[in-house]
Design goal:
Elements (H helix, E strand, L loop, with lengths): L2 E6 L8 H14 L3 E6 L13 H4 L6 H11 L3 E7 L7 H8 L9 E7 L5 H13 L3 E2 L4 E3 L1 H9 L13 H25 L1
Parallel strand pairs: 1-2, 1-3, 3-4, 4-5, 4-6
The structure holds flavin mononucleotide (FMN).
The site of flavin mononucleotide has 14 residues, from loops.
C-alpha cells in the first residue's frame, strides 16, 4: 500500500489546519492509501543556518532534523496542507523543507490550501519549490474558499466532514492523480535501486 504523508504546514495557535487535516486524512485512507499525518508542530526546528542539505544529504546536524528526514524518507508521496501567509508559504513549512532535500526526490506532491483565493498563490509558489526538490507537483489541488471556510469554522464537531461536501470531488481528483503518480514514480525509483 502506498504511503502518503499529509503534512500540516501551519503551526500557529488556532490554525484552520486542525479542521482540514482529519478530512483529508480520512479521504486518503478511504482511497486505500496508507496515509499518516506529519504535523510540523512535532518537529520544532531552528531557522535553517547549515550547509546545504543538497550537499550534505542525510548527514543530519541534529537529532530533530534527522527525525524529520527519516520520517520523510518513509513516504511514497505527500499532500501538503497550507494556509496562505502574506501571499506566500508559511515560514515554518519552508524552513522544514530547507532543512531537507533528497528525502523528497522523485516523489509526487499534491496540495490543499485555503484563504481568500483558496490558497491559489501559496500553492503555485510551493509547486515551484517542488521542482527544485526534483518532485512531481500535481495539477489537481483542493482550494478551500471562504464560503467553505466559514461554515467549517462555525461547525461545532471537528469530524463533521459535511461542510466539505462541495469540494469532495476536488479531493477525489487529487487522490486519483496522486495514485497514478505514486505508482509511476515508485516503480521508477525501484528500478534505480
Ligand atoms: C500572517 C498571516 C498572513 C495572512 N495572509 C494571507 C494572505 O496573504 N492571503 C490569504 O488568503 N489569507 C491570508 N491570511 C489568512 C489565512 O488564510 C488564514 O488565517 C488561514 O486560516 C491560515 O491558515 P492556518 O489557520 O492553518 O494558520 C493570513 C493569515 C496570517 C496569520
Amino acid at each position: 500500500m502506498a504511503k502518503i504523508q499529509v503534512i500540516m504546514g501551519t503551526t500557529r495557535t488556532g490554525r484552520f489546519n486542525e479542521r482540514v487535516s482529519p478530512w483529508v486524512l480520512q479521504r486518503l485512507k478511504d482511497h486505500r492509501f496508507d496515509a499518516e499525518l506529519l504535523d510540523l508542530r512535532d518537529y520544532p526546528l531552528p531557522f535553517f543556518d547549515q550547509l546545504p542539505p543538497s550537499v550534505t544529504l542525510r548527514n543530519y546536524p541534529t537529532a530533530d532534523i534527522a527525525r524529520l528526514g527519516h520520517k520523510l524518507d518513509e513516504a511514497d508521496g505527500f499532500v501538503i496542507l497550507t494556509g496562505e501567509y502574506n501571499h506566500g508559504y508559511p515560514a515554518v513549512l519552508k524552513n522544514a523543507i530547507d532543512h531537507t532535500h533528497i528525502e523528497w526526490h522523485r516523489k509526487p506532491v499534491a496540495y490543499v490550501g485555503w484563504g481568500g483565493v483558496g490558497g491559489a498563490r501559496v500553492i503555485e509558489q510551493l509547486r515551484l519549490v517542488a521542482i527544485e526538490l526534483e518532485m512531481a507537483p500535481l495539477r489537481n489541488a483542493v482550494h478551500i474558499l471562504p464560503e467553505v471556510i466559514r461554515p467549517a469554522m462555525q461547525s461545532k464537531d471537528p469530524t463533521d466532514f459535511s461542510v466539505f461536501e462541495p469540494i469532495e470531488p476536488k479531493l477525489k481528483a487529487l487522490a486519483d492523480g496522486l495514485e497514478w503518480w505514486v505508482r509511476a514514480l515508485a516503480t521508477a525509483r525501484a528500478a534505480d535501486d
